[in-house]
From TrEMBL:
It is found in: Endoplasmic reticulum membrane; Membrane. Keywords: Endoplasmic reticulum, Membrane, Signal, Transmembrane, Transmembrane helix. It comes from the Eukaryota. This is TMD11 protein. It is a single-pass type I membrane protein. GO terms for cellular component: endoplasmic reticulum membrane. It comes from Anthoscopus minutus (Southern penduline-tit). Residues 8-106 form the GOLD domain. Coiled coil: none annotated. PROSITE patterns: GOLD. Belongs to the EMP24/GP25L family. The chain crosses the membrane at residues 164-183.
Length: 196
């Protein structure tokens, strides 16, 4: 995505609780002379801020023009991840565009292939088995979180449908009572004028 040099850009990630989140990013600055983005932006860093659904700041750190950040979610819900450059130029001068390449991986644990190759075959199988068990636990947590969200959504939908039904009943009763009142008023009016 693209942002201005002094602009803050936030994204929202829906993350289950107790989940590791790893993000890799790279910043490129617009070059006016080449009319293209430079491969890197030396001297330019990024402030990365992560806010939990409860409003607590989980991560607030300055990184370089490219880097990796990670955090563990303690509460399930929508986490806000914000990026802002550390540019010190004035807003009038800092008109340069930045391109940010971002890769966010939720719940992944990476294997160090060089460490695995250095060990014998039994240890390699053991490490891969532990990795698979971690992935199974992550999938189970993800499914539990989705089940919880679906249950909350279903409960909200049922409450809304119930409210709509009662509102329709109340409207019908009001219409019937207004109709009866109008008929009675007209009848009394015609009787008083001796038209009936």
């Amino acid at each position: 995505f693209h942002i201005g040099e002094r602009e803050e850009k936030c994204i929202i990630e829906d993350i289950p609780s107790d989940t590791l989140v790893v993000g890799n990013y790279k910043v490129q600055r617009w070059d006016i002379h080449k009319h293209d983005f430079l491969e890197s932006a030396p001297g330019l860093g990024m402030f990365v801020t992560v806010t939990s659904p409860t409003g607590e700041v989980q991560l607030s750190k300055l990184y370089g023009p490219q880097g990796t950040f990670s955090f563990t979610s303690y509460v399930s819900g929508e986490h806000i991840i914000c990026f802002q450059s550390n540019s010190t130029r004035f807003a009038v001068i800092a008109g340069s565009k930045l391109r940010i390449h971002l890769d966010i991986r939720v719940g992944e644990h990476f294997l160090d292939e060089s460490a695995i190759q250095a060990k014998d075959k039994v240890n390699e199988v053991h490490v891969r088995l532990e990795h698979l068990i971690e992935q199974i636990h992550h999938v189970t947590r993800e499914q539990d979180y989705e089940r919880e969200r679906e249950e909350k959504f279903r409960k909200t939908s049922e409450e809304t449908n119930s409210n709509i039904l009662w509102w329709a009943v109340v409207q019908t009763l009001i219409l019937i009572s207004v109709g009866i009142w109008q008929i009675k008023s007209l009848r009394d009016f015609f009787i008083s004028k001796k038209l009936v």
